[in-house]
Recover the amino acids of this structure.
């Protein structure tokens, strides 16, 4: 999170539920049956892989973080949190991206 003149910005990684069988450097996956605690805490609806090589800074506002129409997680745009057991995996993906740049 970064405080800018226009508001607060957050760094967001691209995520997809496709091609989870192909993980490349800089990516990590969260799968329901691999680690159900991390999956539930993340608030995911599907197994998802994230690409730390494709990250963008976006404003923390309604344009990017509006409450979903079917707000099953309550009236908040935050879908979930990263479980502590994922830190090593995310760290490895992040280091892989840094090596590629």
């Amino acid at each position: 999170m970064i405080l800018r003149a226009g508001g607060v910005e957050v760094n967001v990684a691209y995520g997809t539920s496709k091609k989870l069988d192909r993980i490349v450097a800089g990516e990590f996956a969260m799968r329901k049956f691999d680690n159900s605690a991390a999956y539930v805490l993340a608030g995911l609806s599907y197994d998802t892989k994230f690409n730390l090589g494709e990250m963008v800074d976006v404003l923390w506002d309604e344009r990017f973080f509006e409450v979903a129409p079917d707000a099953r997680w309550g009236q908040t745009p935050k879908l979930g949190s990263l479980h502590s057991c994922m830190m090593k995996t995310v760290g490895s993906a992040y280091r892989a991206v840094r090596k590629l740049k």
